[in-house]
Amino acid sequence: MSNRSVWKGPFVEPKLLKKVNDVISGGKFATIKTWSRKSTILPNFVGLTFSVHNGKSFISVLVNEKMVGKKLGEFAPTRKFSGHGNNRK
Questions:
Q1: pLDDT in tens for each of the 89 residues of the chain?
Q2: Cα 26 to the chain's mean position, in Å?
Q3: I need a surface site. Which of 11, 48, 66, 70 has the fewest CB within 10 A?
């Protein structure tokens, strides 16, 4: 669940929303580059590809119906698991 009040509605960075509207109205579905990990995924984002910044590089995220209501940052991990040491014998 979100900590944001229901009457406020979901938060989406205005600049990101403008980029999404430009891509949809343009007809060509290009990748949208964003640093806004805190933006909520809206139903009109479905089918679009976002490049979400994880602090070091951009992670490509293709949005589907199950992602609606979640944050963009949830799909771009910031930590890389390299395993539990070297297990050679």
A1: 557 788 888 999 999 999 999 999 998 889 999 999 999 999 999 999 999 999 999 999 999 999 999 999 999 999 988 888 776 65
A2: 21
A3: 66
Domain count for the chain = 1
SS3 34: strand
CA pair distance 76, 63, nearest whole angstrom: 12
The pTM assigned to this predicted structure is 0.84
The range of the structural domain enclosing residue 57 comes to 14-75
Q: Per DSSP, what are the bridge partners of residue 52?
A: 34, 59
Q: Does residue 22 sit in helix, strand or coil? A: helix
CATH at 25: 3.30.860.10
